[in-house]
Amino acid sequence: MKSYKSAHWIFDENKQELKYLDGTTKRLPARLNNCLASLLKAQGQTVIYDELLEAVWGTIYRDYNTIASVVSELRKLINCRSSKVNYIVTVPKKGYRFSCYEHIQLVDSQENNALEQNIDSHNTELKDVATEIEPQLAPQNAIIESPQVIKSPSSINTVVNSSSSFTGRKKALTYSFALVILLIVCAAVLLRPYFSSDNLNIHSSKTEVLTHEYGRELEFDLSQDKQWLAYVHENDLGKDLLLKNIKTGITAGLFADQNLYYSSPSFNYTNNALLYLEHSDRGCEMFQIGINNEGFLANEKRKITQCGLKDSWVTTAYDKHSDAVFFARSESIAEPYRIFKHDLQTGYERNITSPPSTGRGDYSFALSPDGLSLAFVRNVLWEKSSIWLLNLANGETRQLFEIPYLLESIAWMGDHAILYSTGHDLMRFNLASKESELVKRFSKPVKYPNTDESNIYVSRGQSLVSDIWQLNLQRLTTERIIASDYIDSAPIISAQGTLFLSNRSGHHELWQRGGNQEIKVMDLIGELEKVKNIKELDHEFLVGILGGRIVKINKTSHEVVWLSAEEKKIDSFTLSAKQTKLVYATELNEAWFIEQLDIATGKLEFFGIEGFTAKYWQNKILLTNFRAPGLWLYDPITRERQLIDASFEVFSANKWAVLNNHLILVKKNEVSVFALNAGQLTLIKALAVPGDPRSISCDSVKQVCQFDLFAKGSTEIIKLVF
Predict the structure, then answer these.
(1) Residues 469 and 707: beta-carbon distance below 8 Å
(2) 78-124: pLDDT as tens digits
């Protein structure tokens, strides 16, 4: 098969690879590979949207924004992050075409292999060609010279003083006067942003508490006139939706019961209606209700649309004209969230984002103050969040930045910065500099940032607390063994006691409890802060996942050794009973497959079966599929796969464990113990627990399991006045 050679790379469709000038190779996902191949095969002609959809997805029944997202990813790879290069050109209302195809060379496989082996010797030649054709590939609207930015009054004086050299020359007065006028205009334009919410004095602020109820204040919104605060208030009875007049303190509410609760309030731009979600046995439904000076107007409540699964946490927002709304929806656990736009006049709605299936999808977003862009959060592999920008006019998307944890919400800080929170820190990402900076560090965690032109609002407090509990399998009882006012989680049973993660010192740490003593084992800071799914290995080491790769960490020296290949995308793993092997799932082209690694030799065994979580049991492997119910038993010797329980449903490896002939499953308010006999799963007992367990580990010697138990804390909504 032919390969395509450009001034910057060699593309091998058959291998799904891009090889760059410096010799590095990028393996392309199937959708990017197919898209690039289709554009190149068209030889510079326009490829219409339907043809690209057919080539990339095998169907034309997808939204065109699906292709826009793929093309956006592809441009980043083939343009080599150069502003002077634009290989793929948008053809408005038609599709895309490959620019400057006449500079692409077709090479056969033999020639391609020779190029790959000797690419270093060709670098000079290729760079010369790149220099020659880059002006032809430059975007038509590219800015060649950047304007000088006036940063302060002192820089203005410098420019004015430099103009004094014209004094004494002919027409000096005219030139000086014109220059002064020009500087005044430039200063007005360039310095204006410094007085907007983009450039608040982040080092000087005072705090005003806006809510005082017992419980947790969750997501919230403020009306454009700053008169009303709508917020979700959670107490022992459920999640209410409260509407508070900030000036008078008058509060109205929509109150929850056992089968109904509320979330995600958003005001329209005329301050007379509120958008929100209702969660009940009917699933998730989006409503609009009228408001006036007295509060809610029950006779102006109407259902807008269905928003998919009950218990989903997603965002809502009006568009700038309040005649359409944005929301996120997923119809099943197997489907990622997508963002939709719904027209309030016609009822017409369509999805405007198309995320990959390897994660939660696109669930949280914020509309820019000018109404032209939507910033949204895309969950990656259920462990990372990437923040994207969607141009609402042309549907183009681009990734802004990525963070190694799940992000709940974002907000705009003017039109040029994105506000987000990470633990105790409130951060903002500058779209111009493409860098994040600290806005303010709090003594307590903060969430759900919101802004107006002069203030920042957050929910502050310990939203969750977590203790460590123990399950005795012989007596089938549970008891709390570690209690604190912090988040103690992810217990690991060891010979010395219990290892667990904690935020007791304000950051990620590994602690150990032995007897009645609790001591800090090590700080998990820097890169180690991102390690998840930690387990103990031979008492001296920890094994975990860092950046989608399995790592071994020396508890004393903190030395990190990589156990899995760099290109793997791994979500979770399980150690064998003798701790000599581990089994895990890795992602390939948006599907997950089970592999086994020998820790001592590094030998990798690829089983060739699909699965997302896996556990060892009697020389066999129990596994579940990605976003689908069912528990399966796989025999690595015979390669046979047997369905044990079609209704078994778990989507996280941390939420189930196997101990001898028992399977233990944790979920909200419940720990279930099953018997595993002859390939059958039988419930022994379901134990009620007062919270939400998220991680469980078991020990065959002590015949116990330990799990963390999350419960509700207390928070408040505050205003930062700058």
Answers:
(1) yes
(2) 887 565 678 898 887 788 999 878 888 888 756 656 655 555 454 44
First to last CA, the chain: 63
Q: Is the pLDDT of residue 162 over 60?
A: no
AA identity, residue 438 = L
Amino acid at 415: D
Task: Give domain status of residue 719, yes or no.
Answer: no
Q: Does 238 lie in the same domain as 222?
A: yes
| CA nearest neighbour of 574 among 638, 628, 621 | 621
**pLDDT at residue number 62:** 53
**In the predicted structure, residue 183 carries a pLDDT above the cut 80:** no
Contact 272, 225 (CB under 8 A): no
Comparing 125 with 573, the larger pLDDT belongs to 573
CATH number at residue 23: 1.10.10.10
* φ, ψ for residue 688, nearest 5 deg: -80, 135
Residues 562, 643 within the same domain: yes
Q: What is the chain's percent helix, strand, coil content, to nearest 5? A: 15, 50, 35
Q: What is the pLDDT of residues 50-65, one digit of tens each?
A: 788 878 866 654 555 6
Q: Which residues pair with 719 in a beta bridge?
A: 208, 457
Question: Cβ(488)–Cβ(494) under 8 Å?
Answer: no
Place of tokens 């799990």: 707
Q: Are residues 520 and 667 in the same domain?
A: yes
* Contact assessment for residue 584 and residue 570, using Cβ atoms and an 8 Å cutoff: yes
C-alpha dist (Å) from residue 437 to 200, 304, 370, 447:
13, 38, 23, 17
Cα–Cα distance for residue pair 663/659, rounded to 1 Å: 6
The answer to whether residues 669 and 624 belong to one domain is yes
> Which of 390, 539, 471 lies closest to 687 in space, CA to CA?
471
pLDDT category at 672 given cuts 50, 70, 90 is: very high
Q: Provide the CATH number for the domain around residue 640.
A: 2.120.10.30
- pLDDT at site 176: 53
Q: Among residues 29, 74, 62, 67, which one has the least CA distance to residue 48?
A: 67
Written as one string, the DSSP assignment of 618-631 is: TTEEEEEETTEEEE
Q: Are residues 169 and 132 in the same domain?
A: no
Per-residue pLDDT, 462: 85
Residue 719 has pLDDT above 80, yes or no: yes
Q: What is the pLDDT of residue 286?
A: 96
Return the percentage of the chain with pLDDT > 70, whole number.
83
Let me know if residue 614 belongs to a domain. yes
Same domain, yes or no: 205 and 314: yes
Mark which of 137, 166, 186 sits at the end of a domain: 137
Same domain membership, residue 606 and residue 591: yes
Query: How many Å separate Cα 548 from the centre of its chain?
Result: 14
Average pLDDT, the chain: 83
Q: Please, which pLDDT band fits residue 148 given cuts at 50, 70 and 90?
A: very low
Range of the domain at 55: 3-137
pTM for this predicted structure: 0.62
SS3 string of 631-655? EEEEECCCCEEEEEECCCCCCCHHH
Q: How many domains does the chain have?
A: 4
Among 453, 482, 516, identify where a domain stops. 453
Residue 142 lies in a domain: no
- Separation between Cα atoms, residue 578 and residue 300, nearest integer Å: 65
Pair 109, 158 in one domain: no
Residue 694 lies in a domain: yes
